[in-house]
Every structure is written in C-alpha cells, then in structure tokens.
C-alpha cells in the first residue's frame, strides 16, 4: 500500500478468540468496583504510579494526533490549600446562586455541597488542561473529546493500581492557570484528587444502568 505519509508496521495485541470474552469480563469486574471517592487517607502514593497512569492517558486517540492535553500533578500542601480555597469560592457561588433548582435536585442523592476538603486531603491532585493554539502549540481538533478519552484512561489506570479518584469540575476554572502556572492557551478541564480511600470511607448508594439500558444492537 502506497501512502503520502510515513508509516510503521502495526503490532496488534493478539488475544485468542476463546479468551477474548473472559478478558473483557475480567476488566469489567475490576472497573465495576470503581467509585468516586470524597474521603482520602493521607498516606503517600507509591512512586511511579501517577507517571505510568499519565503515560497511559497519553495513549488516547486525539484529533489529528495533536495530543492536546497537559497533566499537572500537585502534591505541595500549600498549593493544594490555595486550590481548595479558590475552588470552594467558585462552588459556594454555584450552589448559592448559579445552579438551577433542577440541577441541585439531581445532585441531592450524591450529597455534595460547596465544601471540597478532598482537594487538600488527597496526597495528589491532577489538574488536566486542554491545550489550545498558542505560541508553542498547534491548533487542536476535537479537543474536549480527545481530553475526555484521555481522562477516562487515566481514571482506569489509577483504579487498576488500587487508587481512588474523583472528577471535580469547578466552573469557571480560570483560577487554575495561576495556581498551576500554566499559560493562557491551556484551559483547565478536570481536577482529579488521587489517593487511597480513608478508613471507613462511604459512598452514595447508587446503581449503574443495566446493559439493556445502555446497549442498542441494530
């Protein structure tokens, strides 16, 4: 096959047909235990885990292979304190003034409010930025979709390592550029606390939709 761009041989993952369903089932059984966690133990994360999780996230497909993501890992206590204070200020405004009654009713079963102690308690917080066109970055394509896929892989990788996470999306997020020392062309998309669940941590009693509620065969 002749192409106008460089190519390399594909080295696909070879899985025997009789093992394919079992592997998919095993992966589901691990991921089905994943829950959003708001109560964290302060013990440190093992060395190298976050690096490998970010490497995995960065394998995600992206529009035109621009890879429009930046992962800022915050472990400094003072910076986490500033992050929490700024995020809580935005969240207090959201819960008191910006959120509709319908939105607040949807959040009620989860039990959230403006308080975000997990931003300080978790040993690490990963702030994920979308990278837009700037002095040293090209124009991205399908930016939100690309970064969203990468974050999904990040969460899966961290869960596989036995760590808990939460996807926090304060709005607006411009304060994160200053806290994370990032340029204007980078726009914060997710704030993800990472760590081990606190002893006795509890989560809302929620259920996931059944397969026939989410799968359509044609």
Describe this protein's structure.
With 218 residues, the chain is α+β, with helices and mostly antiparallel strands. Helices cover 39% and strands 12% of the residues. It is built from 8 helices and 4 strands, in the order ααβαααβαβαβα. The chain has helices at 17-31, 49-57, 77-98, 101-107, 118-121, 143-160, 175-180, 211-214, and strands at 69-74, 124-131, 164-165, 186-195. The chain has a 4-stranded antiparallel sheet with strand order 1-2-4-3. α2 (49-57) packs antiparallel against α6 (143-160). The protein is globular and about 60 Å long.
Biggest sheet: strand arrangement:
1-2-4-3
Shape: globular
Task: State which percent range the strand residues make up.
Answer: 5-15%
| Radius of gyration of CA atoms, rounded to a whole number | 19 Å
Helix content: 25-40%
Order of helices and strands: HHEHHHEHEHEH
Give me some keywords for this one:
four-stranded antiparallel β-sheet; 8 helices; 218 residues; alpha+beta
Describe the structure in brief.
The protein is 39% helix and 12% strand. It has helices at residues 17-31, 49-57, 77-98, 101-107, 118-121, 143-160, 175-180, 211-214; strands spanning 69-74, 124-131, 164-165, 186-195. The two termini are 33 Å apart.
């Amino acid at each position: 096959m002749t192409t106008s761009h460089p190519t390399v041989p594909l080295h696909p993952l070879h899985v025997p047909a009789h093992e394919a369903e079992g592997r998919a089932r095993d992966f589901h059984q691990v991921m089905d235990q994943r829950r959003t966690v708001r109560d964290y133990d302060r013990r440190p994360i093992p060395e190298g885990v976050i690096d490998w999780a970010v490497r995995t996230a960065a394998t995600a497909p992206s529009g035109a292979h621009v890879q429009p993501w930046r992962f800022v890992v915050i472990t400094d206590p003072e910076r986490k304190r500033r992050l929490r204070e700024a995020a809580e200020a935005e969240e207090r405004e959201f819960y008191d003034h910006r959120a509709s009654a319908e939105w607040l009713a949807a959040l009620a079963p989860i039990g959230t409010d403006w308080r975000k102690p997990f931003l300080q308690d978790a040993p690490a917080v990963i702030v994920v930025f979308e990278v837009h066109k700037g002095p040293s970055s090209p124009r991205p394509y399908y930016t939100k979709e690309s970064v969203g896929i990468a974050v999904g892989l990040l969460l899966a990788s961290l869960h596989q390592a036995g760590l808990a996470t939460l996807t926090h999306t304060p709005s607006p997020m411009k304060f994160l550029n200053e806290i994370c020392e990032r340029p204007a062309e980078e726009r914060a998309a997710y704030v993800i606390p990472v760590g081990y669940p606190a002893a006795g941590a509890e989560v809302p009693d929620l259920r996931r939709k059944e397969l026939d509620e989410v799968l359509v065969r044609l």
